[in-house]
Amino acid sequence: MTASKAIPVVAPVPEALLDASRQAYRDGPRLLADVGATNARFTLESAPGRFEAIEVLHCDDYADLGAAIQAYLAKVGIARVAHAGIAIANPIGGDWIRMTNRNWAFSIEETRERLDFSTFLVVNDFTALAMSLRYLGEDQRYQVGGGEPQPNSVIGVLGPGTGLGVSALIPTADRWVTLGSEGGHVSFAPNDDRELYILQYCWRNHPHVSGERLISGPGIELAYRALSERACVRALPLTARDVVDAALNGSDPVCVETLDCFCAMLGTVASNLAVTLGALGGIYIGGGIVPRLGERFLHSPFRERFESKGRFADYLAKIPTYVITTPYPAFHGVSAILSDTLRGRSSESALIEKVRGARPSLSKAEQRVADLILTRPRTVLNDPIIEIARNAKVSQPTVIRFCRSLGFQGLSEFKLKLASGLTGTIPVRHSQVRHGDTTPDVSAKVIENTASALLRLRDTVNVTAIEEATRLLVDAQRIDFYARGNAAVVALDGQLKFFRFGTPTASYSDPLLQRQSASLLRSGDVAFVISNSGDAPSLLEAAGFARAAGASVIAITAQHSPLAALATVTIGIDAPENSQGYSTMLSRILQLAVIDMLAVGVALNRNPQSPEQALIELAAQDSDAPPAV
Hints:
Shape: globular
CATH architecture of the largest domain: 3-Layer(aba) Sandwich
Distance between the termini: 80 Å
Number of strands: 18
Helix content: 40-55%
Largest sheet: 6 strands, mixed
Structural class: alpha/beta
Number of helices: 27
């Protein structure tokens, strides 16, 4: 369904408004946009929540997004804006955006430079819609059915239009975050014979039928044709708008049935979203179709279908559902996200405020580096020094001088502090070291990769496996560590730690000694095998001998490796590194961390009445003092 183009032409923004804008926003009004497959909606935000000069442009009239933005700015009489935020009906996966529902493709950075923006933020349209929910007043929504929202609970949002958008708003300790989702592409599930007929009709041309295929403007047209065939009447060449209009005035029985079916199917998808998210804060419906239905939607099958969930009917009955009625809700959301970006989340990042405060005292070249960090802090986190220098239009030594002006030894130390301030932790990602990287770049990447790998291990480690391995080690009569290559250092570390608990412990890296030792183990003993790949023949053979002798095998290795299949307990580690051409680094650090987890666990189990003393004794193991006897 397409939105109406009957939008009044807006005259150039009055100078008085621009003066007010400059006072409210020091850099002038901000450009906001909600770009769909059919229309692009623009506004100037002159102060928080004050949207002026709203225009709706038809996307088919412009070659690309940049041309549409230029046309809007020309229409409202603004030569340039400093900061712009765009919500777009498309996944956002990097700098290059290729719209799925029309032939627009663009680079975010190239468009920013082309339009001379200081800041150009591009987010998914339903991410922006989800963020807008915090700002909706009672007069900008209406409730369908019963239910009461639970405070500080997840809120779901979906909206049928040209497609079917899905997102959520999730509370955290100190703020709300949005969920990036392509939930409109889940498989469609029929709920009755009529919907099954529609699905079978779709299967004639579409091997996979998603929710979006039917719960959208094009989906209304498709359902109308299917139901016309089912009713043995000739389908007219009606658009989605035509079908809805005929249903609202009751002039066509098949159109009435189509709209009822559409509302029921939407109820199913909404309830699925509610139970998937645990959306006790409510489900909101936006998009271009449902708000047009007015009272008709209140009396549609939507809410009945929403609550029709068998054993979960009572659960769904408590969740409220709302229709968003404000015409431009995404403006509120993209405004909030843009404001957070421009602030650099100043409440959380003292470093951003330090950069902002130090800027006037820096050299002009260093100020350009500061401006880049203030407008694009997360880009700076990922870029090597050569890219930072290029984007700031300075030399690489200037970037280093900037960091030292703020009290850091170099770029790597600055990046680590910046990452901690922006996200509350080191970002979980892996940066490839490349030829030409400078020493600060290499230092930063090695440190960031290690920190990221440790955080990934924290979030993914199998706690049940850690508990089971700890139990085996506590009860072990003997512990033998087997490893090859780099992992032999980890095995030696394990031997030293567990030997100090008073358990007979040995470490072997020679294949022959591994086989002989494993064959001598007995029930109650533990063979502890450490392997990055998990497919070394000698280690697999030693593990097999240990199992045949009645011993338990604990493995630190790749999750789905041959060694993992052979072990009694597997603690899976899959580090993002190339072990064929390079010496492993991350896996060794992660293996050492697992050894420490197990050692702490054993210490606490050995001394449950005084865990503090157990940890003190464990820490003493790493000192230069001789082992206790």
